[in-house]
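Q: How would the structure tokens look for this protein?
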Amino acid sequence: MKIKIKRNKAVFIGLFFCNLIVAFLTPYILPERYFNDTVIIVFDKFHEIGWFGSYPFAIMFYKLTGLRHLPFFLIALIQFPIVTYIYYKIGVPSNFHKLNVKNGLVYVALLLTGIYMSMPTKEFITFLMFCTIPFIFQSNKKPRFKIIFSLILIACFSFFRPYYILLPIFAIGMYVLSFIKFENKTFSTIFYGLLIAIFLSLSHGVVRGEYISKLTRENYVINNINKNNINTAIVSPISQDTWYGEAFGIVYGFMAVNVPIVEAIKHILSPQVLAFVLWQLLIFYILFVRFSRCLKNRKQYQFELWILLILFAYFIVQGIFEPDLGTSIRHKIGLFPLIYFALYYEHFRKDIQQSI
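A: Here is the predicted structure in token form.
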């Protein structure tokens, strides 16, 4: 009896095995600086283990699962198949075997996933958290329940990274503002989302005496740029000590991690940076176009709209906190189940419509 495998799934399986080899070899190839976080998670030199915070919880997770005692190549052989299986359960698009820009971007994302999942990493935990959202939207529950429950669940993820609490706030804020009639609704919705972020940061500055982005990103970069060899550090050209400097810094950070044209110019002689920049630009452009389509037909694309609102809320949050381009891309891989779902939403639409 012959077993027939469709071409889309054959390509998916082929990519899995190729990237599994990459994941297996990565610990032997990457420079030591790529394992800075991993060393903290495995050895817990500062006794940070706990249940709240990304490092404490990651240390606890890898201790309880016993993964931190395994060699990295075995961790790669465990973690990468898990995340690939999750992608498979979300769905393999019928045209996944065709070579186009969108599929190419996902192929690269799977390669990056293989690299980042080859070691103890916070991104594996982030992936396991956010992969729940597509499954919720594919469930048979009522539409309003799916949306509300997803937003509450994301807010609960703040025990791991406190800034996740901002995602529902920004998403709901942009959703409400999107009802206002603007000439260019897509640009305006994102712009006012940035204004919400600036308002929250300035309010934090009034209450606590220091602005959020200044307190997190700028101070971190200043203290670690030489020690951690941060090649693509995001440093605002205007000091963030003032309210207007903080406002500019947030907008600058948003552009640097999502539309990193300035970063490309700075690193014009670094092929790997240019490759990351191109990948990021194309991802952002496709999601932006889809966001525009959803805003015009919000009833038809209500679930895709909320996925994209959550994603653009995250992109805005990255503009506040991300210290460098490389870290921002690694963090995007943790949330890539949402990006994957948004990129191939038309493939999943039939299944979702059946559950409404």
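Residues 131-356 form one domain.

The longest helix spans residues 271-296.

Upvote if useful.
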